[in-house]
Structures are given as C-alpha cells and as structure tokens.
C-alpha cells in the first residue's frame, strides 16, 4: 500500500512537470498564422494592382490632353474699371466671387480716382484672386456727373487704356493670354470664360439685356460673322457692347497704338479699339455660333437714401466707419 501511494505520487509529479514543460515550450512556438498572412499579402497585391490601374489612367488622360494643367491654360486678363459709389463694394464682391471660379485668371482693376482707395485695396487683398490694382482719375472735362444720363459720356475709358498700357509694359509677345473687359455691374456665366479661353485673335458672342433689346448678337453664317443684330446705330463699325468680345494679349501687344478713344462718339467706344485690330470677317463667333447668351448687361438700381439723408440732418446718420 505504501509503495503504491509513493508510485502514484511520482506519476503525479512527472505528469505535472511534463505538463508544465509542454506549456512553457508552447509559449515560444509561433502560432499557425499562415491564414492571416495570406490575407494580408492578398490585400497588398490588390492595392498594387489598383495603383498600376490609376497610374495607367493618369497616363491615358495626360496623353489625351483631357486634363491639362491649369498653368498650361492661357491666362485670362479681366480688365475692370471701377469708381466710388454706394453699390461699388457689392458689385466688386459679386464679380470677384464669379472670377474665383475661373482658372488661371488675372484681374486688373483700375479705379477712377486720384489714389488707390482703401475699400478697393482691401477687397482685392482679401479676394483670393491674382490681381493688379491701378488708378487714374478721368479728366474733369470728361467726367460724367451723377445727374448726367448714362449715355452722355462713356465711363472707364482712361481706366481701360491704363490697363492696356500696363499689359504692354509688363507682358511680352511670347506670353499667351486673352484680354476681356468686364465691367463690375454685369452678370457673367462661368461658361463664358471657357469660350473666351480659346480666342485666337478677337472672339465675339451675344450680350443679354442691352441696347433696348432682350439681347444683341453678331449674326453668323457658315461659322463666320456676317453682321449684327442690333437696333441702335446699326451702322457703327462694330455695333457691340464692351462685354461682347475678347482680344488676345498678342494682338494687343503687336498693335501698341490700339486703344479706346476718349473723344469717341456715343456708342463708338468699342469700335474705336476694334477697328485698329480686326475686320468683321476675322471675328471668331463663340457661344455656339452666337446663339447662347452667357453675359448680361444687368444694371444695379441706385439705392435711395431718403431715410439716411433725413437722419443725417438730425445728426443721427449711420456710423460712417462701417463700410458698405
Ligand atoms: C457653327 O456653324 C458651323 C457652320 O454652319 C458648324 O459647322 C459648326 O458646327 C457650328 N458650331 C456650333 C458650336 O454650333
């Protein structure tokens, strides 16, 4: 009996030691992870395949020229004359936020003022646009008074000419680009800028809400401009609105004398520039052969300040330090 108990104890002891050793050995053993590893390598393989696919897609798009780099697009120089008035900031904010959507654009803003104003300087600095800020005051004898009808004297002539001068002094014939005169009170579809971009010399298109008509437009036959749909002074050389054409930078640099004529008769301002640049047959019709309106000659109503004036008389006018 004694011997048997001792044997049982020895067997128990041995089994325990063997069990303990087996457990310790298992700690150092690698687990059977092949399943896990396999799925990881599958994932990496799939990612590699996707990467190659994407690289091929990029190559394909580059080859087809479908996604040109923005730097490759010709710059659109937008020339905007502007002058101080109650709605000036509102107009410039609206225009600047349209222009923000256009790639490779350079905004040339020219103030009709003796100095650069703080309002325009700060607006441009905060606009997020590439810009040039210029100023020139219209000579007194040519200045239109607030009370004068809008057709009496054309506005913005000296300002547009100064912008042309800036381009001639700061750009070279080898620089690509297209120049567009965009007043601050018009409404511009973004599609217009796609049309402008491909200008070869001078491109044209309809303008809405102008000349006492729903629209004015160049008349196009077989892809060529053969005349103009306009009711007012149809015998003008180029019976078109300022917003209805664009000119390449090259053409303006090659014709250094081309400019707007300060003495131009009413309605002849556009003609005064275009006459020295292009003939009607050479005009490039855009906007689906001039059948689509992409710019509107909207005019902002002059705000009435009746209450403001009354309060000012009582010394209770609105805080002049708050910019509007
Ligand atoms: C413009 O007209 C020409 C000639 O009639 C035609 O070949 C061309 O497809 C037209 N373009 C557009 C964009 O409608």
TrEMBL record:
SUPFAM superfamilies named in the record: Nucleotide-diphospho-sugar transferases
The keyword Transmembrane helix is annotated on this UniProt entry: yes
Domain of life: Eukaryota
Transmembrane segments: 7-25
Annotated membrane topology: Single-pass type II membrane protein
UniProt KW keywords: Disulfide bond, Glycoprotein, Golgi apparatus, Manganese, Membrane, Metal-binding, Signal-anchor, Transferase, Transmembrane, Transmembrane helix
Site-annotated residues for Interaction with galactose moiety of substrate glycoprotein: 216, 307
Chain residue ranges for the region called Disordered: 301-324
Catalysed reaction equations from the record: 3-O-(beta-D-galactosyl-(1->3)-beta-D-galactosyl-(1->4)-beta-D-xylosyl)-L-seryl-[protein] + UDP-alpha-D-glucuronate = 3-O-(beta-D-GlcA-(1->3)-beta-D-Gal-(1->3)-beta-D-Gal-(1->4)-beta-D-Xyl)-L-seryl-[protein] + UDP + H(+)
Annotated metabolic or biological route of this protein: Protein modification; protein glycosylation
Compartmental location: Endomembrane system; Golgi apparatus membrane
UniProt: Mn(2+) binding residues: 185
Catalytic residues as annotated in Swiss-Prot or TrEMBL: 270 (proton donor/acceptor)
GO terms, molecular function: galactosylgalactosylxylosylprotein 3-beta-glucuronosyltransferase activity; metal ion binding; protein phosphatase activator activity
EC number(s) per entry: 2.4.1.135
GO cellular component: cis-Golgi network; Golgi membrane
Record's compositionally biased regions (Basic and acidic residues): 301-311
Cofactor requirement: Mn(2+)
Residue numbers binding UDP-alpha-D-glucuronate: 81-83, 112, 155, 160, 183-185, 297-299
Positions glycosylated per UniProt: 289
Example GO BP: positive regulation of intracellular protein transport
Entries under InterPro entries matching the protein: Glyco_trans_43, Nucleotide-diphossugar_trans
Metal-binding as UniProt keyword: yes
Family, similarity comment: Belongs to the glycosyltransferase 43 family.
Name of protein: Galactosylgalactosylxylosylprotein 3-beta-glucuronosyltransferase
């Amino acid at each position: 009996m004694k011997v048997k108990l001792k044997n049982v104890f020895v067997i128990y002891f041995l089994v325990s030691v063997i069990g303990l050793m087996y457990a310790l050995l298992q700690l150092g053993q690698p687990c059977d992870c092949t399943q896990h590893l396999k799925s990881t390598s599958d994932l990496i393989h799939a990612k590699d395949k996707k990467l190659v696919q994407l690289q091929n897609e990029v190559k394909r798009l580059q080859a087809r020229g479908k996604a040109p780099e923005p730097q490759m697009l010709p710059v659109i120089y937008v020339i905007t004359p502007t002058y101080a008035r109650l709605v000036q900031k509102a107009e410039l904010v609206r225009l600047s936020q349209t222009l923000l959507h256009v790639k490779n654009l350079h905004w040339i803003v020219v103030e009709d003022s003796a100095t650069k104003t703080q309002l325009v300087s700060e607006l441009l600095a905060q606009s997020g646009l590439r810009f040039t800020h210029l100023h020139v005051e219209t000579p007194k004898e040519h200045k239109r008074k607030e009370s004068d009808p809008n057709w009496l004297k054309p506005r913005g002539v000296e300002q547009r000419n100064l912008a042309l001068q800036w381009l001639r002094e700061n750009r070279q014939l080898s620089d690509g680009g297209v120049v567009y005169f965009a007043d601050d009170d018009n409404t511009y579809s973004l599609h217009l800028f796609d049309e402008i971009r491909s200008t070869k010399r001078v491109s044209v298109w309809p303008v809405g809400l102008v000349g006492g008509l729903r629209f004015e437009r160049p008349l196009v036959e077989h892809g060529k401009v053969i005349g103009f749909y306009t009711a007012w002074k149809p015998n003008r050389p180029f019976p078109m609105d300022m917003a209805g054409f664009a000119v390449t930078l090259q053409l303006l640099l090659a014709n250094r004398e081309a400019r707007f004529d300060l003495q131009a008769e009413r309605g002849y301002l556009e003609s005064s520039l275009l006459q020295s640049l292009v003939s009607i047959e050479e005009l490039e019709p855009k906007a689906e052969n001039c059948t689509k309106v992409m710019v509107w000659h909207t005019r902002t109503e002059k705000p009435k300040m009746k209450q403001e004036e009354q309060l000012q008389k009582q010394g209770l006018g609105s805080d002049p330090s708050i910019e509007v």
